[in-house]
Amino acid sequence: MKKPLRSIAIFGAVGALVAAVALPAYASTTPTMEAATTLQQVAMDDAQSLVVASEATAAPMDRGNYSATTPDEIAQKKAAEAAAARAQAAAKAAASSSRGGGGGYSTAGVALVAPGSGEVRNPVGGGYYVSRTLSGGHNGADMVGDAGTPLYAAAAGTVRISTDSYYGYGVGVVIDHVLGGQQVSTLYGHMIYGSRQVQPGQTVQAGQLIGFMGSTGRSTANHLHFEVRIGGSLVEPIGWLNANGAPA
């Protein structure tokens, strides 16, 4: 009986020794695995937070039409656009002045009033010839001359239209008159750019300089397209001039 008891005691001691040796080793590996798991989780969490942050800042902040990062950049862009707009406006104004804004064409050495003293004057102040007159689809008389020939108001009245683009007439002027108790209007078309000397609403005298002959609009040669309407109805311009003491 003593030998079995002794054997049991020996085996028990050996088992305890084995457990004592093995357990610390096992215990030492467990925190390492937990630590690795924790680091992996932290890395994953950080990665997610970085992705979210990246998405939040991917689109630049917008201030009106400006993709801005700082107030200084916004101010600089606004200043640059304002300067460009001012330059564009100045260029447009210069173009308008050179092409027909009124008064841009030199009148040096030109008579400001047509010869004669009658109530009706010939609208063309220089040499010319009549190429065609009122007929079919043509509403007036074409009085052909050199580019820059002075043009005058056929009678006293008020300017109703003065523009660089009047339908097919190009640079044109329309003046309303009262002659012999009748409402009369005269139209002057195809004038040269920059030559208009009158503006809408302006009162003019018979024979007053209003512009210069050109070939703007629907035109193939320098000439004045001259129309006359009485009470809104077209009349033949050359005959009208002759009848009113202003031979064409």
Features:
248 residues; alpha+beta; Glucose Permease (Domain IIA); 3 domains; 8-stranded antiparallel sheet; 12 strands; 37% helix; 25% strand
What is the secondary structure topology, with strand pairs?
Layout: H1 2-57, E1 61-63, E2 66-68, H2 71-99, E3 128-132, E4 141-145, E5 150-152, E6 157-163, E7 171-179, E8 182-191, E9 203-204, E10 209-212, E11 223-230, E12 233-235, H3 237-243
Task: Describe what this molecule looks like in 3D.
The strands form three sheets. Strands 3, 4, 6, 7, 8, 9, 11 and 12 form an eight-stranded antiparallel β-sheet that branches. A two-stranded antiparallel ribbon has the order 1-2. The protein has a two-stranded antiparallel ribbon with strand order 5-10. The protein contains three helices and twelve strands, in the order αββαββββββββββα. With 248 residues, it is α+β, with helices and mostly antiparallel strands. It folds into three domains: 58 residues; 33 residues; 116 residues, Glucose Permease (Domain IIA), CATH 2.70.70. The chain is 37% helix and 25% strand.
